[in-house]
Amino acid sequence: MTRPAPVIVGAGPAGVRAAQTLLAHGLHPIVIDEAAQAGGQIYRQPPRGFLRSRKTLYGFEAGRAQSVHGAFQALREAIDYRPNTLVWNAQPGLLDLMDGMAQSASTLDWDDIIVATGATDRVLPFPGWTTPGVYTLGGSQVALKFQGCAIGRSVVLAGNGPLLYLVAYQYAKSGAHVAAVLDSSSLADRIAALPAMLGQPALLAKGIYYLAWLKLHGVPVHTHAQVQRVEGDARVHALVWRRENLARAGGKPGLEQRIECDAVGFGYALRSETQLADLLGCRFQFDALQRAHLPVRDRSTRSSVPGVYLAGDGAGIMGADAAELAGERAALALLQDRGITVDAARVAQIEGALARIGAFRLGLERAFPFPERWAATASDDLVICRCENIRAGELRAAVREQGAAEMNRLKALTRVGMGRCQGRMCGAAAAEILAHAAGLPVQEVGRLRGQAPIKPIPLGMHVPAPEPVAARVIALHAQEDAS
Amino acid sequence: MKRLDTEVLIIGGGIVGASAALVLAKAGRRVTVLERDLCGARSSGINYGGVRRQGRPEVQLPLSQRAHEIWGNLQSLIGTTGEYERSGHFKLARSEADMQSLIAYAELSRPYGLGIELISGERLRQQCPWLGGAAVGGSLCPEDGQANPRLVSPAFARAAAAAGTTLIERCEVLQVGHDGRDFVAEARQGDDTLQVRAEVLINCAGAWANRVAQAFGETVPLTSGHPSMVVTEPIAHFLPWSLGVEGGSIYCRQVARGNVVLGGGRGYVLDEQRARASHDSILGLLPQAAALLPALRHVHIIRTWSGVEGYLPDQHPVIGPSTTQLGLLHGFGFCGAGFQIGPAAGEALAELVLHGRSTIALDAFSIGRFLPAGADAPDLLSSHAERKIS
Ligand SMILES: Cc1cc2nc3c(=O)[nH]c(=O)nc-3n(C[C@H](O)[C@H](O)[C@H](O)COP(=O)(O)OP(=O)(O)OC[C@H]3O[C@@H](n4cnc5c(N)ncnc54)[C@H](O)[C@@H]3O)c2cc1C
Ligand SMILES: Cc1cc2nc3c(=O)[nH]c(=O)nc-3n(C[C@H](O)[C@H](O)[C@H](O)COP(=O)(O)OP(=O)(O)OC[C@H]3O[C@@H](n4cnc5c(N)ncnc54)[C@H](O)[C@@H]3O)c2cc1C
């Protein structure tokens, strides 16, 4: 029997380069992506018919965007590309897909798979964060890139991480009024990080450029800034913040300051989309740098499960350039494992480049340190899980009164992470609250176990009834089941 | 190595072990529970949450009725309602033949006082406008219902601890035996080892209980099964009862929060301790659910799961004394239906320790039914160190 085609999930920079590499070596992969067009998050393409130039859409990244889109355009016909398709479940040898347009389920056999599922924002809530008009930074950017609209006329951007300055720059450039940029980290952090970041001067220069541009155009940029709350019911109308270093204790908090605005974009860097790796059975380990449990992989992107390769931000945040390299590396590893000869020099070159970007990441994390004191400052009535409306105080009570000291137990007792997002949005924050309340380091509270479906799917979706399923239903009929 | 002496050692902190511990501790006994994971983290805390007597085989009904009384006092017993509701359990028939079975069951169970009502024809359509066309009738047990296992089972363990039980979690019993005087169990807790000596040992290790039984020469045909669960996003309340279908295949209920929980089919094994809902079970369930409850067609499913449960070939648990070792009691193998009956099973085991006999006859659940008649009792004196159970 011939082997099934290799599968790539995700058509972002990692997935596209992986597909290109496989094809160059004679394998015709199946590329599955939930989005309508290739490009992933950073090179997300607007719906057809939108007439903005690449330069407006992607700025400095226009060239790379062109290159990634072009590469995909060139191989599209030669591969089995399935856009608008969600991978919602995985088990050994088998993936469950849903065609988002037809709302119909289908099945795909796999025996090697490259997981390139990317990332979403890391959310740390503040009072009022569920008010209409509050978005994540990534969401704010998606609105701009995909829909060509801003989240508001007068926008405050808050949190930390490189996306903060980038989105501020993109918003200001596109004509929105950026009322302020509030960075929870400090200038000192930035300076301490410089040595590690000098290894990637171009990236560093871009960061410095955004900041300088914002200052030059009169956009107020505040460091040590902690968002206190958002004001407004039907819609945001102001944001209150004060100076206070969230990363470190000590130092007197400044006076509260109020900024009028009609929208807020916030986020604290990104978090990897790891559920597919989880369902595929990959082993996870706590990564101190990313402050998250991530699927384990080696330099070659091989996971702990034979035939599963992990590339791009989905396996740990490394940025778009690293994603391209890792996608190519994953494809080369897959080829090697299929006994196909690959260019060893290229392999070494990629691994070297990835290591250098890794060192830069170290710097980035130092420049934008995770706001470790956030959990200590979150008040009891702060909503952590918006699907289930669970507040910090309820999480703390479960720790205090019911002895919860582990994420899945906390979920069982309080419903945190039990709603539509399955903890993708609230999980990081809930782990921080739990760890702080239980007096444990965050790596010791564990992680929410992944469960299908990766995203909600309609119960009434069209399910083809192949022989085996029908036969099994009849077999079950004969047996008194659990209940 | 740490050492601990206790009167009664219970292996397994599921609903059965925790219930037994609770009764024993309240009676003033020194009880220790060793639990490999967290109490209620296995079957007991992740099941479907059906608290039903209807449909149980006749031999289980006395125990099930006793459990019904215990569930009625849940709040005072464990300090939480655990979302327990006597919302009714409705078993529906999709054919005349199935309806006949329901009628027969109503008859058979009448002496036990389940209060079953049969509903069909026009009354069915009036009372159940939400039901799709698949049903011809059904049988309602108004006082059966549902509860939230995530809350109930850990609460049993907490109540046992509050009553004085020594509860040691994340502590796996690796081997157990009897040295002629005491039971001796060796367990691992993190990097530490723990030796527990006890006069009485109760085996409530769920799907893994065979290892303990084996250590005393009582191997039973226990297998693991993995019921598959699917849950929808929360929606407005429309489903008054917990639903089952005659002959099995699908069951569902709407929880306090509004989500509809559906069960049916089998999950797949991840490893010895974990299972997940399988592709086949999920895709088998969805169309059935849409046919049964048309209102569900437009909702999303947000989560699926499974668990590891112990099954025995005749679909009854083992509850009662060992046939080979004095002082050893078993309570395991609940075949997908131990959540409702668990508190009564635990109580019966405790009664055996306290009084040498239980209020409710347990003969049908004897482990002896699986052992070859006249099998030689093993050499109990030299049974300790080598008897690995894991
Ligand atoms: C909202 C957002 C905006 C960003 N903007 C920038 C930016 O402007 N500049 C910058 O340098 N970096 C940005 N980043 C980071 C950047 O996106 C990543 O570094 C880069 O895109 C990583 O590439 P990737 O191929 O790993 O993943 P992605 O580009 O994220 O691609 C992953 C793809 O996988 C698909 N996918 C995921 N799960 C499934 C599934 N279960 N089934 C089917 N398909 C699936 C997604 O639809 C997506 O197309 C942004 C990140 C986010 C989340
Ligand atoms: C998905 C699912 C749905 C179900 N639905 C229902 C339902 O709706 N209604 C109903 O009545 N029943 C239902 N059941 C069955 C019910 O959950 C079980 O019968 C019941 O929970 C069994 O309780 P237990 O205490 O015997 O076992 P468990 O809850 O499995 O507890 C056994 C414990 O022993 C521990 N253990 C095992 N070995 C060792 C060792 N060596 N050392 C230390 N600890 C050990 C385990 O970690 C475990 O916590 C369902 C079961 C499942 C899996």
Describe this structure in words.
The complex is a heterodimer of chains A (483) and B (390). In chain A, helix 1 packs across helix 3 (62-75), helix 6 runs antiparallel to helix 10 (344-367) and helix 9 runs antiparallel to helix 10. Chain A is 36% helix and 20% strand. The two termini of chain A are 42 Å apart. The model of chain A is unreliable at 469-480 (pLDDT under 50). Chain A has a 5-stranded parallel sheet with strand order 3-2-1-7-20, with helices on one face. Chain A has 15 helices and 23 strands. With 483 residues, chain A is α/β, with parallel strands linked by helices. In chain B, a hairpin with a 4-residue loop joins strand 9 (171-178) and strand 10 (183-189). In chain B, strands 1, 2, 8, 9, 10, 11, 21 and 22 form an 8-stranded mixed sheet that branches. In chain B, strands 5-6-4-14 form a 4-stranded mixed sheet. In chain B, helix 1 runs parallel beside helix 7 (149-162) and helix 1 runs parallel beside helix 10 (338-355). Helices cover 27% and strands 29% of the residues of chain B. Residues 377-390 of chain B have low confidence and may be disordered. By secondary structure, chain B is an alpha+beta fold. Chains A and B meet through helix 13, strand 23 and helix 15 of A and helix 7, strand 16, helix 9 and strand 19 of B. The structure holds flavin-adenine dinucleotide (2 copies). The site of one flavin-adenine dinucleotide has 41 residues of chain B, from helix 1, helix 2, strand 9, strand 13 and helix 10.
Summarize this structure as a short list of keywords or feature phrases:
heterodimer, A: about 475 residues, alpha/beta, five-stranded parallel sheet, 15 helices, 23 strands, globular, B: about 400 residues, alpha+beta, eight-stranded mixed sheet, four-stranded mixed sheet, 10 helices, disordered C terminus, binds flavin-adenine dinucleotide
